[in-house]
Amino acid sequence: MFKTFVIFLTIIFLQLFSAEGKSNVAQPGLWNAGGMGNFSLLYPEDSLAYKKIQMVDEKISVQLYKGYAVIKGVYQMFNDTEDTIKLKTGYPLNGFFDGETGNNKKVEIRFDSLFGLAVKINSQPAEIIAEPSDDNGGYSDNDNWYVWQNIFTPGDTTVITVYFIVNTNNTIIRQGYAKDRFNGFIYILESGSTWKQPIINGEIRIQTMDGITSEEIKGIKPDSVFKINSVETGNILQYKFENLSPVKADNIIITYSENSEEFNFENILNEKEKLYSSIDKFSELDIKSSGLVNKKFEDPFEVVSEDWGSKLMILGIIGIPVLIIITVVILIIIFLIWLFRRSKKKVQSTDE
Q1: pTM: predicted TM-score of the whole model, two decimal places
Q2: CATH number of 29-294
């Protein structure tokens, strides 16, 4: 029996250490959000040309719907050299970057593909191709990009206009094992740092659609840069900046409205032309800054709901080792009792 007990005890301890080794907390952050930044450098041979082209004006218009977002970006790019500069730019099919919560905790942010991309250069449609890139700039783990060719004439401003749609409905906000499901939108302002600095003028304007009000915006980061047309019922937000050399802290992250299990993104893409017409009107809307008020928003990374599945997982991770320890203690007690009785019987046999 002693050998059997030792073998059994060894198995128990191996299971205990195995359970402890699996007790990893999930990566915190924002997963599967919809979003993108401005177009980025693709090829190393073009890198020297980037610092010769300056983004003198960046105007981003966003309409947030329940389940998706429509984006229009207008970029005025100035070539202050005496040379004609040709280079390729584009968007990754998906990507990631690191961020921080309101409590300065590191988080990982991942965003999904963009759809319906349309690009115009000086009002003329540009040819877009999907191809692999040698350099993803650290924002993408997918080699495939949407790419187009740019020609910047000397001493002139080139206007690049982009339209695209992103799915915001699949966003997961995660803290440890707890998670929430909301709509999530991201604009990586930081990607503008690859051009000659600074960005002279910039504006990001956002309009919430489908009856979404500011009360349904769960959180925005940075939390205090946007002004809104009404603190409680507003649906138009505006952020203006000047002479900005964007860094990671400038990236726009928004979570809003709970997502829908019945959302059909394919139906949305079929309405692309109608949606682009709507974003055109919004981008040209005269927003009176004097009618806007400051508002500080909550942390978009905060998880508020109870996640019983995660709690059960934690209970399993903690409970199994505890149960094993209790079992081992009981077995040791039983073994000691057996050993004591066995010794007592030997003593009695000797006396007889």
Answers
A1: 0.76
A2: 2.60.40.3680
